[in-house]
Specification:
- This protein is α/β, with parallel strands linked by helices.
- It is built from 15 helices and five strands.
- A five-stranded parallel sheet has the order 2-3-1-4-5, with helices on both faces.
- β2, α2 and β3 form a beta-alpha-beta unit.
Length: about 300
Amino acid sequence: MSRCLPPPDFAIVGAPKCGTTALYTYLSAHPAIAMSTGKEPCYWSTDVPRSWRFTDRAKYDALWAGAAPDALRGEASTTYFESLVAIPRLLDARPDARLIAMIRNPLEMAVSRHADLVFVAQEEVTDLEAAWRLQEVRRRGHRVPAGCTDPDVLQYRQILMIGDQLERFVRVVPPAQRLVIVHDDFRRDTRAQYLRTLQFLGVEDDGRTDFTPVHTRRDISSLGAFRNGLKRQLGPFYAPLRRAARAVGANRWRSVRRYAERPAQRKRIRPAFEEELIAEFLPQIEKVERLLQRDLPSWKRPRSDVA
């Protein structure tokens, strides 16, 4: 890959809640790799509304301003897997770019995605089943939380179409330029999947053995729910008051954060709803099995530890 060409040399394209942040973090420390300064620039996914998306090409390129001349430049944006245009646009600009897709049991994705949105105050309904039932209402602009900056993120179903998304990925990206990582494998033996990624990118093993989890399950019953209520009550005064509180009592704020970000207790969703979701996801799971030519039986049965 030549530095005469614009970035990125490679990209982690999604899906969300599948280990992309962990892989981005691990690759960021590799001496031969320069990851973008900040995850999720979402530059190429112009059809997926996101308030933080980079739209200026010069600012996007500047994400690698400090990269070493011979470093591989990579980024990670989970909207690319969902987008209909992101990967074709990226490949038009960089026909030789290598793309990494990470996929996961959609039931696990649903639970994790919902908990994450509650924690960051984008979702106010703390019960997944209730939030799931609101998707069509919210699509019409109703019952959207006041603090939600991107109502589209509350459409849980659309990010879980992993079979359709993987099919599109395989159709558009040449075999030599694509890598698919299944979250089960990444969780079971992270170093093996890390080495597989380095081999795919054509860089040497840096000897990394520390694969400390980057994201633990977040407790939606503590800071997230509390912050949601506070934001609704304080409205535009919430952000400046929080900044002031953090400035005055930084140590105390960090203590609260550590408490709230402790690994959450695993919560079992209602069995009948779990069965409903599995039935809905089954066609997508079967499509993934066909595309990867492997069986994924654990994705098609109820689980007591989904989190």
